[in-house]
Specification:
alpha+beta; FAD/NAD(P)-binding domain; D-Amino Acid Oxidase, Chain A, domain 2; eight-stranded mixed β-sheet; 14 helices; 19 strands; 32% helix; binds flavin-adenine dinucleotide
């Protein structure tokens, strides 16, 4: 049973880009025959109406599942992608879109995966101009900003660390920072660190574009909505057998590999598949809110991706217990721990501001919280004074909602859109990428917390190396990423 964190079934909904309605039999017959005969086929049996078979079955159409699908197709393997809701139903739909190195720690495995991924992102958009435009690729650079002198010293240390591995980072004193971003006034004369090579994309647009490219490949099929919800997994008894994936009304066979890339819900799927409950505890949500709103009149534009430097604690903590909430953690929260609020801001391609962000441990509810919205804007206004009146009206809206016991935020700020997503946090702060020991043909790619959009391409590449090794290919070097192996992550979390 996959019950604990699986929301109740939703109304039938399919991915809505063209073709609007896709019947499965026609999808299969249209896609399989011309290019890859017999690799991905619908087989009929007396007992089951629809039995589907693919080389690899992927559960979860977030950014990680999509990049894995792309890489498998590139390696001539057929793919069936299963998604119980629709694109961007998980964390991918809420991501701010930073493809950044500035806030990571050189020399760590997280750095290596991010660096490889950014290189792959660059290659992908170099080869595909349409994709570059569709995903709103912005070479806007990143700015880490400090909150007073103590933090400014940490910016200098970071500048040194980044420069020493060849990533150009420039320290900006308050005067130079003000010249670069006139609307930014960090508290207590804080300084900045500029990494001009950092990038930004629109994560939702990227997910849609990747799915479209997968669908253009005859070796690909997908089931979106309730018919794509995995409700049971039967693992093969031994090497060489195929795994069986059960959805409502269908049995699906994964000929070579089953990939679980279901974000924070991966833990429960793994527990159900392997009978090991610890997997469920290994992956937990860190709920995040992201605000999209028009730039207030008179406020100077935000031209870089910006983040307060204390945000880096979420990345230096890899392989250590989760850090305590920061001094900035002020907001009311529905979880037992207070929410962690750390300032981020950028401008999307349509000119709107994207303001973040919050982290709440172990909160599964994805309804926007007026208190968190107000706390994010309050924090942002301490760096961007042009947001002060928006922050005050959001605080008033949150107080009104608290007084009535409601959760409306519609009066907070004109034109405000709120995205809420569950960052898949794996204990220790690193993702799980690789095979599951004792279950040949079962693979995991999950737990990217606040970095999945950035790390998607490298994750897909790495996972496919493991799958190819499992299928008998040689020379698939994965050693530098051993710390990400699911069993290594599980062991580390139990220490
Ligand atoms: C506010 C916020 C800001 C962020 N900003 C950034 C950023 O700037 N840069 C960055 O790199 N990352 C960022 N992230 C993190 C990033 O969004 C995530 O790391 C990433 O989206 C995770 O992708 P995923 O594919 O692993 O999971 P998800 O996107 O959660 O996808 C998992 C999918 O699996 C499906 N699923 C679950 N169970 C089943 C089942 N039983 N059957 C079928 N399907 C199932 C779900 O419906 C879901 O669609 C941010 C996240 C948040 C919340």
């Amino acid at each position: 049973m996959l019950s604990r964190n699986v929301p109740p079934p939703i109304r039938a909904r399919r991915y809505s880009s063209s073709p609007a309605k896709r019947s499965l039999p026609s999808l299969i017959s249209r896609r399989v025959k011309p290019v890859v005969p017999r690799r991905f086929a619908a087989a009929r049996s007396a007992s089951e109406d629809d039995v589907l078979t693919a080389d690899v079955v992927i559960v979860g159409a977030g950014i990680v599942g999509l990049f894995t699908a792309m890489e498998l197709l590139r390696n001539q393997l057929s793919v069936l992608l299963l998604e119980r809701k629709g694109l961007c139903a998980g964390a991918t739909g809420a991501g701010q879109g930073y493809l950044w190195m500035a806030h990571r720690s050189p020399g760590t495995v997280g750095w290596a995966l991010a660096a490889r991924s950014v290189a792959l992102w660059r290659r992908i958009v170099q080869q595909d101009d349409d994709l570059r435009a569709t995903i709103e690729w912005q070479a806007c650079g990143s700015l880490l900003v400090s909150n007073g002198e103590g933090e400014s010293a940490s910016l200098s240390e970071r500048q040194y660390a980044l420069n020493s591995v060849g990533l150009k980072a420039s320290y900006l004193d308050p005067r130079r920072l003000a010249e670069l971003e006139p609307g930014l006034v960090p508290p207590r004369g804080g300084a900045g660190l500029l990494v001009q090579s950092d990038l930004q994309i629109n994560g939702r647009a990227a997910a849609h574009a990747l799915l479209q490219r997968c669908r253009a490949n005859p070796g690909f099929g997908d089931l979106m909505g309730p018919e794509g919800e995995v409700v049971g997994l039967e693992l093969a008894a031994g090497p060489g057998g195929s795994h069986v994936i059960r959805t409502a009304g269908r049995r699906i066979h994964a000929r070579h590999a089953l990939v679980l890339s279901a974000g924070v819900w991966t833990g429960d799927l793994l527990s159900a598949a392997t009978g090991t409950p610890a997997w469920s505890h290994l992956l937990q949500p860190r709920r995040g809110h992201l605000l999209e709103m028009p730039r207030p009149e008179g406020m100077p534009p935000v031209t870089h991706g910006i983040m307060e430097v204390s945000y880096t604690k979420h990345y230096t903590a890899a392989s250590t217990p989760p850090p305590p909430p920061s001094a900035a953690a002020t907001a009311a929260s529905s979880s037992a721990e207070p929410a962690d609020i750390t300032f981020t801001a950028t401008t999307s391609a349509n000119g709107n501001l994207l303001i973040g962000s919050s982290r709440e441990s172990n909160v599964w509810d994805t309804d926007p919280s007026p208190a968190i919205i107000a706390a994010i804007l309050q924090r942002a206004a301490t760096f961007l004074p042009g947001l002060r009146s928006c922050a005050d009206s959001a605080a008033a809206a949150a107080a009104a909602a608290a007084a009535t016991g409601g959760n409306s935020y519609s009066d907070a700020v004109a034109g405000l859109v709120v995205r809420v997503g569950l960052r898949p946090y794996a204990a220790g702060g690193l993702p799980l990428v690789g095979p599951v020991v004792g279950s040949p043909g079962l693979f995991v790619a999950a737990g990217h917390e606040g970095s999945g959009l950035c790390m998607g391409p490298g994750t897909g590449e790495l996972l496919v190396r493991y799958i190819r090794t499992h299928m008998g290919a040689s020379g698939q070097d994965t050693r530098s990423f051993d710390d990400l192996l699911p069993d290594a992550r599980l062991r580390a979390s139990l220490v």
